[in-house]
Amino acid sequence: MFLCSVTQIHRIVCEEVTINLFNLVINPRSFGQSVENIYYLTFLIDDGVCGMDFTEEGEPVICDSVVCLESCLDDGSRGIDNNCQQMLEFDMATWRCAIEVFNITHSVIPHRL
Questions:
Q1: What is the pTM assigned to this prediction?
Q2: Alpha-carbon distance 40 to 85, whole Å?
Q3: 37 φ, ψ to 5°?
Q4: How many CB atoms lie within 10 A of CB 78?
Q5: What number of other Cβ atoms are within 10 A of residue 13's Cβ?
Q6: Looking at residues 12-26, what average pLDDT do you find?
């Protein structure tokens, strides 16, 4: 189940090129699965398979590592800092708010039984 979920998230990120973090991980039917999706995503980010960036509007997006690297270089940065860590506060109130703000009606990552 673990490897299958991580592989599935990787496939989605590669297909989408960039995707809003909340649209990717939020399952509007299940807070617990949303938390699990974030957990699985952290392995892909830690392995350098994908990365997190921000749009000009400040929205967090997940992108393929090549796209994130190109974005960093375009901004004049020296590339992705592998030692950089991000913290994400995610509770049920944040989950509900993200569903409403981003109008999430279905889960990009299929619902698990």
A1: 0.77
A2: 16
A3: -60, -40
A4: 7
A5: 24
A6: 84
